Structures
1.
Amino acid sequence: MRVVVAGGGNVGVFLAEDLSSAGHEVLVIEQDRELGARLSAQLSGVTTIVGDACEVRVLDAAGAASAEVVVAATGDDEDNLVISLLAKQEFAVPRVVARVNHPKNRWMFTQSWGVDVSVSTPHLLSALVEEAVSVGALVRLLQLDASGARLVEATLGPTSPGVGRCVAELGMPRNASVVAIVRRGHVVVPRGDSRLDAGDEVLVLVAPDSEDRVRSLLVGERPARAGSPTGAPEREP
């Protein structure tokens, strides 16, 4: 796989080294000339070019047209959005991954800006913390693509409606699938006759329009928030 990484900071360097060690062809674009020179010497097996990835000519020189993935990993959200849009619209890159530096900017990292997958470290940390302490709640762990498909997790409490039922009996929507069950620290590959127990961590791949249905099947209806009779989550601007 050919990957272009825009940004030679700590995140970009880690990605480049990790992907290169896995056998992928990786090129890093770094705007700072001195840093670019150091990376050229430091990164074995990784090509580094100096330039502004927000410019079409630089992405062209980096071979974005033949890249299978472009990663916008700079420390500036505006730059990452511009890089993503150029990669998608000018070079038709199949998959564009963008780093979100400021969590309040995450709502902008959508398909309209060319972003297939956005990665926000604060949101990931928040989800992992919530997953570790929440029982009887549905927690979003990871959004997988621009369609909104996501991996969610529910730790079943004693009164969860899913307890005692087999996976096949849950009546999961067509666009939702139980992908794993974690039971007492061990992963159980789910089958139709796999029965759910209290304390099970159930991981489900689900489309956005079926998330509420999955919640009701596994943990029950979401309680309404104060001032919100439907319990609907607040949307980001």
Note: The chain has a mean pLDDT of 84.
2.
Amino acid sequence: MIDRCLSLYDWAKFRQTQGAITWHRVLDPDGYLPCFGLVTEGKVADVKAAHQMPFAPETSVVDDRGDNDDRLLAPWTASISLPA
């Protein structure tokens, strides 16, 4: 999270007197450099931003237990083909 002055970034609401933004990133698996970024208000959770992010096949997604969202994970796991 990146703290911002609320008077300059009035769209970046975080707390009543404080502003913040979050930069959600997708890293390219070949070079581990960001290939997609999404800037949101500081209070937007990563799992909510993930619904708007493109993931190529075989992308590794890392999250914590608080970010589990079955509506997001179901299409990903349904497309996995397991060896017979």
Note: The mean pLDDT is 76.
3.
Amino acid sequence: MHFEILIEDQSGKKALDILMPKIIEKKHTYRVISYRGIGRIPKNLKSHTDARNRILLDRLPELLKGYGETYTNYPINYSAVVIVVCDLDRRCLKTFRQELLRVLNSCTPKPKTRFCIAIEEGEAWLLGDIPAIKAAYPKAKVNILNNYQNDSICDTWELLADAIFAGGAKALKNEPWYVIGKEKSTWAEKIAPEMNVEQNASPSFCYFRDKIRELI
């Protein structure tokens, strides 16, 4: 089986490129494609933004339509699925899922697709493995990590920054946006290799992991 994974940022790609081999066997294939932000689903399901801007939800109707047309030409014994990974942020989970399904249902033919939503943000999947964070950052502030509630709505990346970044989120927020993105990618590259995917405490990560294996 092949997994085509669409994710909204580079740090998420860094993490999943490391984590996917821990989830699936080598006989299966995957590709993680990162975008430059999440954006929003167009009201008429037709994107009005330049494809070169690479904003995930803005492009999603066209992306899924394209995958549907492509996958219909695959050999019958070859299975491929699209996995769309988004941060929930402050959205309503039920409403957001309905909006995503509306996009998928507008496609003819529909590609096999699953939506996996990180609650609240992708850093929640890293915070689901506190021992991995401590291994990657031995000087991490343990009191902050131990008080974290998995998949809580709590400004997740800022909480992780407070635990492992010098000066915390306040200092990092004073940096340009691209510096923040680069730092998040560094966290993913350092923490993900230490993670045990079987013992992650983030419910939304476990949903992603189990959905991948269920499809297999």
Note: The longest helix spans residues 56-71.
